[in-house]
């Protein structure tokens, strides 16, 4: 296929807590799937249990517990640095491998109102675990792992929990656990994930309500500068499909925007790989388990995120590609697979000339074709 059909990523703006990029040559289903995975399927750490020892504030225990649960905690590399509680072998409710214990103990002794914020939360050390258990999770955590986002940073305002007056006290013990937003929204790493396509509504997916003039009452946004405006005499194409999407990913600080996007691609790839594996016949599954066939999930160590100056990246897969090659703008050691492909590979056996799939697929993942003995991908 032509190179113009390969997936292209172009970073337009990159900040500490958000990224704006253009995704081209994919279909609407993939773009929306990526959006949903980034919002609901990436693990983070959040307060899951609150033990109230003393509360003489004006707010009830449930109110304070809900506010504590919604405070974002630093969760970088959470998928490797912490276990799910259901997967942990500990017998207690809070071992160091599957939980983080935080303490909040504040008393107001001044005659003025005092703000209780996320800066008052402190991590307690946990001693009831076996260091010889063989777990490597503790070594993969950053120094501020589990702390509230922006704690003691001068340019980041803390999150207000409640206000207390003289003589009032709040003392609680919090247990933070690993989870995903499908279980509860507090585990979502994103504040908002949105994408736009077809800013001029050439596909007529939107019906505008207007009083006098549609163009005046529905002005085109900044993304309209990326495309040619339609002509008045242009015929409507019934077979046209959106192929260019404008993404805006904003995080709550628990994960960086680059980690959200790259881990989102990894999770989406894993889901598709599991689906393809489930569609294979039993003999093919036996071959996979025997080691005759397999899926390449290795990650390169040479790809790193570039600075914001690499925003105008070339098509993925080239030496200056958006996500992929060693000199890419995004790249990253968390890239879903190895090879010279732009984004990382499909569940198949990728090749150097493929954007997502193998060497026999110069663009796209390739649709599975049904054979007499099952599904062949």
From TrEMBL:
GO biological process, one term: transcription by RNA polymerase II
Coiled-coil stretches: none
Span of the signal peptide: none
Subcellular localization, as worded in the UniProt entry: Nucleus
Main location: nucleus
Compositional bias per record (Gly residues), positions renumbered to this chain: 315-325, 338-351
Keyword line: DNA-directed RNA polymerase, Nucleus, Transcription
Protein's name in the database: DNA-directed RNA polymerase II subunit RPB3
Family, as annotated: Belongs to the archaeal Rpo3/eukaryotic RPB3 RNA polymerase subunit family.
């Amino acid at each position: 296929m032509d190179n113009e059909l390969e997936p292209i990523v172009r970073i337009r703006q990159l900040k500490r807590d958000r990224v704006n990029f253009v995704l081209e040559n994919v279909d609407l289903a993939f773009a929306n799937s990526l959006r949903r995975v980034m919002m609901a399927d990436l693990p983070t750490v959040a307060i899951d249990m609150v033990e109230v020892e003393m509360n003489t504030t004006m707010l009830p225990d449930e109110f304070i517990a809900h506010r504590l649960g919604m405070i974002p905690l630093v969760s970088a590399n959470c998928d490797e640095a912490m276990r799910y509680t259901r997967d942990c072998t500990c017998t207690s409710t809070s071992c160091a491998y599957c939980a983080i214990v935080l303490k909040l103990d504040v008393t107001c002794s001044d005659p003025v109102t005092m703000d209780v914020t996320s800066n008052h939360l402190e991590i307690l050390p946990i001693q009831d675990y076996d260091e010889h258990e063989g777990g490597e999770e503790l070594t993969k955590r950053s120094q501020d792992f589990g702390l509230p986002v922006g704690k003691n940073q001068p340019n980041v305002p803390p999150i207000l929990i409640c206000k207390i007056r003289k003589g009032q006290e709040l003392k609680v013990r919090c247990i933070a656990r690993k989870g995903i937003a499908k279980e509860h929204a507090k585990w979502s790493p994103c504040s908002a994930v949105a994408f736009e396509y077809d800013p001029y509504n050439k596909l007529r997916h939107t019906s505008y309500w207007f009083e006098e003039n549609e163009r005046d009452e529905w002005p085109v946004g900044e993304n309209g500068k990326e495309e040619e405006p339609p002509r008045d005499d242009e015929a409507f194409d019934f077979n046209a499909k959106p192929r260019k999407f404008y993404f805006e990913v904003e995080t709550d600080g628990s994960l960086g925007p680059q980690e959200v996007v790259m881990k989102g691609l990894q999770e989406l790839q894993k889901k598709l790989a599991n689906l393809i594996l489930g569609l294979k016949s039993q003999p093919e599954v036996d071959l996979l388990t025997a080691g005759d066939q397999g899926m390449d999930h290795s990650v390169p160590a040479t790809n790193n995120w570039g600075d914001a100056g690499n925003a105008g990246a070339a098509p993925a897969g080239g030496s200056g590609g958006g996500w992929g090659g060693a000199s890419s703008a995004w790249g990253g050691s968390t890239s879903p697979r190895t090879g010279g492909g732009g984004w990382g590979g499909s569940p198949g056996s990728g090749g150097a000339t493929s954007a997502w799939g193998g060497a026999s697929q110069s663009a796209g993942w390739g649709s599975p074709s049904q054979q007499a003995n099952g599904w062949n991908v």
